[in-house]
Amino acid sequence: QVQLVESGGGLVPAGGSLRLSCAASRSIFSIGVMGWYRQAPGKQRVLVASITNGGGINYAESVKGRFTISRDSALNTVYLRMNSLKPEDTAVYYCNARYNLKSDWGQGTQVTVSS
């Protein structure tokens, strides 16, 4: 099992920025895909961005051009830089690791964007 610890959430005004961090308990290169998901109240959890161990990146259409996923292999950490935040970005953001047909989740971090 991979332990994932998220941090960096908070309350920001619309147009603001945040950077989320997800620290993994083992080398992120041993993990097939690292991803950020979000879940708004009353809605399903959806993919926001993902990065493969080969460096392939994918974004949800709603965040393209505003969010950037990146990684620091030395720290086994994946980041989500979020710019131009909108109230509709308000959600709990979860880090996910997919590897060897397994999927592990972090505890989530709340992001609230005020209008």
Question: Could you please describe the fold and organization of this structure?
Answer:
This protein has 115 residues and is an all-beta fold. Helix content is 0%, strand content 55%. The chain has strands at 4-7, 10-13, 18-24, 33-39, 46-52, 57-59, 67-72, 77-82, 91-99, 102-105, 109-114. The strands form two sheets. Strands 2, 4, 5, 6, 9, 10 and 11 form a seven-stranded mixed sheet that branches. The N and C termini lie far apart (39 Å). The model has no long low-confidence stretch (mean pLDDT 96).
What is the averaged pLDDT score?
A: 96
* Structural shape: globular
Helix residue percentage: under 10%
- Name the poorly predicted regions: none
Work out the radius of gyration: 13 Å
Number of helices: 0
Q: What about the largest sheet? A: 7 strands, mixed
Structural class: mainly beta
Strand content: over 45%
Secondary structure tally: strands: 11
Order of helices and strands: EEEEEEEEEEE
First and last CA, distance: 39 Å
What's the topology here?
Blueprint: E1 4-7, E2 10-13, E3 18-24, E4 33-39, E5 46-52, E6 57-59, E7 67-72, E8 77-82, E9 91-99, E10 102-105, E11 109-114
Parallel strand pairs: 2-11
Antiparallel strand pairs: 1-3, 3-8, 4-5, 4-9, 5-6, 7-8, 9-10, 9-11
In short:
It is built from no helices and eleven strands. By secondary structure, the chain is an all-beta fold.
